[in-house]
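Tat pathway signal sequence
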Amino acid sequence: MSKDQEYHPLIDDPSGDVEDVEPPAKSTWRSKFSHTVLAVLLAAETLALGIAVFALFSRASQTACTVPLHSQHALYSPALEAVEQEVQVYNVGFSSDFSPFQIPSSPELDKMWSDLYNFGISRITKEEAAKLPNKTHAIPGDDGYYIAELDVFHNLHCLNKVRMALDPDYYPDWRISTTNNWIPSQKNATQHVSHCVDWIRQSIMCNSDTSVIVWQWEDYLNASVVKGNVAHTCRKFDKLQTWAKNRTLRKAYDPTVHIEDDIVVPVFYSELP
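Predicted structure tokens:
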């Protein structure tokens, strides 16, 4: 060991007189006391820092992963279990790209439309009904079950009525009044179709399909033209049909029978318009 590295005592007594130096026992006690106090303070600060860090990360985790459902406006539906996505390309409806639903009014077309939604009124369990954002009514004579309808089937019903109103010669009951021709006997049809048009408008805006329609160049026209046969991300309709068919009512629903129950709509849901 070099001289520069040699140990030197903190208290240097050139005279060698140990009596002038503080007794070792007292010095050791003070040193131990100081170290103990410092250790306690350090432990306390470490603990406090640990708690603060834990709280910070817990809060960040909640913000990122467990945002309350109501803040996302993602409402409960008992049919969410049947939701599955797929890619579909729409029929444009012009030229040779017609849909099967574009045939002339006929019993065949009526059946095709009816088959889309004629099972749309469903029976759900009380447990499922209690989770809905709006309270629904119990089914008379079917204890423990409540009446419900997926909005997709109501939309299809409405669109079908609009379709029928467009061909009043074939569907005279759905002839509606026009701007310059009010038909008193068709008041209900006129109001129903008006409701349906606006309901479909709201549904289209609510679902807001963000699939992109494109323009492509056509040499024979020497111009770019709109192309509607593009890919869309869709929910598999047949899966939701199966869900509804498995929950069809067992008997005709009697809306004149009132049934009391203990279902309470959550406060947040009750504040919805």
